[in-house]
Amino acid sequence: MKKYGVQFAVCFYGVFLLSIFEGCSSDDDAKAKLQIPPHEAKLQSYYSASNRGKWSDLDLEHDPAVNVSKTPKQVNISVTAPFTSRPDHYTEMILLTDYSLKEIEKHSYKKTDQEQIKTTFSLPKGAHGEYYVMLKCNLHDMWYKKIVIP
What we know:
Elements: H1 2-22, H2 27-35, H3 38-43, E1 65-70, E2 74-80, E3 91-98, E4 103-108, E5 118-124, E6 129-137, E7 141-149
Antiparallel strand pairs: 1-2, 2-5, 3-4, 3-6, 6-7
């Protein structure tokens, strides 16, 4: 019986010490974790020209050309997807999201639509701030481009 009591005490003491050390993080670490906006944490799982990840040699094939223009009635965001001549490599979708990555509008494409993909998203007059154009490649995941409308 004494043997089990000692083992229990050692186990209890180990768990106690572990719980103390797990709680020991600096306030700066906690503040840094809280300062990352949720959308930026999610963006870390996507790719961009500045964050190519495992696709480091493919950024030009996935970086859409984006042009923002304003009319008296709306803000137009024109997107041209990069063209690839490989039949097994194509754009599945282009979408526009707001700053928090909430989908505003999505355009889907088939493998046969790939000659020159151009699309335009329209926002109401007065729209401003940060938005993201997202491009979904059938082979190389999701890519984004941040745009700022003044």
